[in-house]
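Per reviewer request, we include the raw input and output of the structure prediction for the construct analysed in the revised manuscript.
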Amino acid sequence: MSDRHIINCHLHLFTLDNVPEDFPSPIVGKLRNKPRLISFLAKVLRGVAPQIERLARMADVGRLETQEKVLQRVLPHYPDDTQFVILPMDIAPGGYREAPVGLREQHDILAQLCRAEEYADRLIPFAAVHPARQGAFDEFRRCVEEHGFRGLKLYPKLGYYPYHPVLMDKVYPYCVDNNLPVMTHCSRGGVYGKNAAGVWGEDLGAPHRYIPVMAQFPALRICLAHFGGSDEWEDYVAGIDPLDPDARIVNWVTMIRDMIKSPKYPNLFTDISYTMFDFEENLPYLDIFLKNDALRSRVLFGSDYYMTKQEDLSERAVSMRMRHALGDDLYYQIAHDNVRHWLTGEAV
């Protein structure tokens, strides 16, 4: 591989077999197993309910038989030497039934894929942890010690705070001792626990909820995924009241920017996954954000495939447009240098 190549820090390969059949509700669970009905509804409601068509495109990938087949859908969008951080999901402990293919098997299948000769140099596997799952830490440690997984994936909106005792007492210390980075969901959208919908669920993973974690584990490298999310970018551009001391906390873009710029949190990162698929609107703002030295060194390129199948632009289109707009040097800083720093702790 060349010295400076793309490392996509945010990719999903889990299939619908890894998703509980009652998520987010039994009716939706039954509907997603009827692809012909979804396709019919998408055609009938086109122009009236475009979100149905978008969900149909995402479900089309999720219904693929294996993680390898999902991977093969995204590989053509990137240069041959691209690497991908793979993020499993564990939704069941959020209050749902166990998925047809559970977390341990999902991890094992990913490990097997990573050992295949054609993928070994391409994939960087993380392990998913929901701290309410019995044996969560043991499964995380197994993935690292038996399979060579290289990081931790969290999703607080599934019903827990980032300072859950299992994380604070076991998982984070293990990450620090083994130099493992953390990727965690940090936008108001996305999946959610059965009792964690709405404002309370959003608050579980708000940026300031990681302050106690970083205070206790200053060496822990944490990436707050999605840079707050596209809706927060829209609110940010609409204006932040300088006379309201709470305004900078309410808006997650401002909060993440303030935290990264603070010398208190030298190991805090954020990625632009999914958010940049609202490309025409958000690219100019990203360009301005990256003029700040701290942000320029700790914003990571990621896409959030295959969640992005809900959007009109392809992976290749977003990546190439971003490279064109930012220029090679800045693009490869966020797509290689910064991601490598987050993964290894070594600045490039």
